[in-house]
């Protein structure tokens, strides 16, 4: 069980993330120059692109947690897995929403069947389905193993979805990396990316702690004796 | 290997004894094909255009029924626990079940094809190619479907969970099978059907391996 000190560290990480996000967004909205073709609309890039990076990172972390749980059977990886999948799904939903808001004024439509947009939507359902599976599995051990297995399968599937949709249809602008973006836009992008990273790692750590406490409650014998699982 | 053959025999025998179920699932698939045409309207050109999509959606919807059914039998009366006590690896049980499910789904695809031809006037001279796509596509439904059915059969609300987990996963199967079937029906001047078949094959290889690797974790305590 983690200590209160670690909990404070997570809270500090969340706070730092919020501060960075506010600073980066201020820079992006007020200080950075408007983009030459899209004008002010393009400023959504300062949250959209960092969200995309972090959504991917959260799901990669979920995949690592799934592997670690299957190899070690340590409950802490199950708690982290649950938290990371939730975060990955939330960030992917945010990503789709921001994408739609950006697409309407620039492409003229809310939605387009472009590979990245479609893959993100599929990701939401694939990993959201795992959360549903967790909700309906009563036995904690089975729930943990199943969600780790489902997470590995879903993660392996994401690239195949991406390539199949890419063959099927394409329109999205080239991926934004520091190389494709003018240097005037770099700093707000980087600050926001790091801000979101701190925010989600802090939240995932807190959520994992909550998961651990819930699990302890679930595994505790009804007479209030010591928990059956100590780790 | 012997264990795999025994498991496959057991599952094929189960499906043969429960063939009324297979007929009911075929009727369900045929009914969905009929219903799709109501959604589009009696426009024979549009129907022919989308025939491949309807065929694969019908097959996908019907597959959730047959996949779920294949594990419901094992969960009843704790049959699965009995199977795991046998000196056979869970991998053999998985591949036996997945192969039997594949056979049933491929048969379903072959049986739904004439229904599609009659309803949508969407025939193709390349029957061998079509059979290949049906085999590759249903293999892609069966491998992850069998793995997930093993989990969802043991939960409450299994009817909802299996499609919820399976549908996003098999998006590439649906896309590739529909594209390839469509090309076979409507003409394939650029020879693209082959690359879609390759994608299906790749998906099958990945998911048949993953399923075998992970199934043991899913069923063992």
Please outline the helices and strands:
The complex is a heterodimer of chains A (231) and B (221).
Chain A: H1 4-31, H2 45-72, H3 75-107, H4 115-136, H5 140-168, H6 186-219
Helix pairs in contact in A: 1-6, 2-3, 2-5, 2-6, 3-4, 3-5, 3-6, 4-5
Chain B: H1 2-17, H2 19-40, H3 44-75, H4 79-85, H5 90-120, H6 127-152, H7 158-169, H8 171-186, H9 193-219
Helix pairs in contact in B: 1-2, 1-5, 2-3, 2-5, 3-5, 3-6, 3-7, 3-8, 5-6, 5-9, 6-7, 6-8, 6-9, 8-9
Describe the 3D structure:
The complex is a heterodimer of chains A (231) and B (221). Chain A is mainly alpha-helical and 231 residues long. Helices cover 75% and strands 0% of the residues of chain A. Chain A contains 6 helices and no strands. Chain B is built from 9 helices and no strands. Classes of the chains: A mainly alpha (231), B mainly alpha (221). The A-B interface holds A 70, 122-123, 125-126, 129-130, 132-133, 136-138, 141-142, 145-146, 148-150, 152-154, 156-157, 160-161, 163-165, 167-168 and B 144, 147-148, 151-152, 154-157, 160-161, 164-165, 167-169, 171-172, 175-176, 179, 195-196, 199, 202-203, 206-207, 210, 214, 217-218, 221.
Which structural traits does this protein have?
heterodimer, A: 231 residues, mainly alpha, 0% strand, B: 221 residues, globular
Short synopsis of the structure:
Chain A has 231 residues and is mainly α. Helix content of chain A is 75%, strand content 0%.
Q: Biggest interface in this structure? A: A-B, 31 and 33 residues
Intertermini distance of chain B: 24 Å
Q: What's the β-strand tally of chain A?
A: 0
Question: Could you name the ranges of chain B where pLDDT drops below 50 across 5 or more consecutive residues?
Answer: none
The chain-level structural class of chain B is mainly alpha
Strand tally of chain B: 0
Q: Span from first to last CA of chain A?
A: 7 Å
